[in-house]
Amino acid sequence: MRILIVKLSSLGDVVHTMPAVQDIRRALPQAQIDWVMERGFAPLVRRCEGVTRVIECDLRRWRKSLLAANTHAEWRVFKQILQAQAYDAVIDLQGLSKSALVAWLARLAPGGKRYAMANQTEGSGYEAPTRWVSDVAITLPAHIHAVQRGRLLCAKALGYDVPDVEVFGLLAQHPPAQAATETIAIENLVVEKIAVNSDSNQPCIALVHGTSRADKQWPLDHWVALGTRLQAAGYTLALLHGTDAEQQRSAALAAQLPGAVVWPRLGLDALTDALVACAGVIGVDSGLSHIAVALDLPHVQIYNFDTAWRTGPLNRTRQRSVFAQPTPSVGAVWQAWLDVSA
After folding, report:
1. Which residues have a Cβ under 8 Å from the Cβ of 80 and sit 6 or more positions away?
2. Structural contact between residues 315 and 296, judged by C-beta atoms closer than 8 angstroms
3. CA distance 146 to 308
4. What span, in angstroms and rounded, lies between the C-alpha atoms of 220 and 337?
5. Neighbour tally for 63: CB within 10 Å
6. Which pTM does this prediction carry?
7. Domain total for the chain?
8. Which of 205, 215, 256, 317 sits 20 to 30 Å CA-CA off 58?
9. Which residues, 6 or more positions from 226, have their beta carbon under 8 angstroms from its beta carbon?
């Protein structure tokens, strides 16, 4: 059986789809599973166990220059690659017009079907074309976690029960002891400390303070207070960033947390390798925090909104979400870290 997963973006949504792939592997071990997504997330998807073919697109970039000749040429190449394989099942896990377009373009094998969500779920985007182009539209509970939504849709489409155990199947390329140094060598960068301080053998905590939405951020002084407690407890600190603004924020934090290391801006491949070497991650609701969950690292996820039920970690032993308004206190986040790292 040949199956195509359509989940184009964003980073957190891509990570949340990985358990559905692992469920399919368990239920249909002979199935070939392909996945189409935005090019920027392809390095991560290639590390998802069970994905045979990664099909990259650039819809976000293409729609900014629809009339450009290179856009037309790249679109034709994408269609050719997408349609090179006929599928027994095409499953749109995104539920938007852009994912509906990709699902519609995909080529079906004789008897093959397109599956999609029949309804919107709470807190998630949904557009009617996903239902229009499907052969089978599947109704899902309105109140459902993002991970469970994808798992349930695939289970109903392919005829199996959702397993009790949630597995992401995200693989790190390097052994933890080598990850930090090899990652930086790959990036051709020189950093004294990435994940482990070899002189003192202090474990490292990665602080994920950056997010695409300013209202999801945790106050800078809270990060400083938390970082001070972590350093007093014997941890070294890694400060992550993915934009210029986040890099400036990392630098501001490092100035108040002597010894904290501002990581270079790494690609998803290198970043995953480096995170594996960490003792844990504390971060806001962001794609990098969701990678920490997928790697099964001790992790605390900070929420200023009551949305952790939909996107937060489900593993209450090694991972925990902390919610409060206007923002969680330093004490609450610190206690959550003590709980998951015990």
Report:
1. none
2. yes
3. 10
4. 18
5. 10
6. 0.92
7. 2
8. 215
9. 207, 282, 330, 333, 334
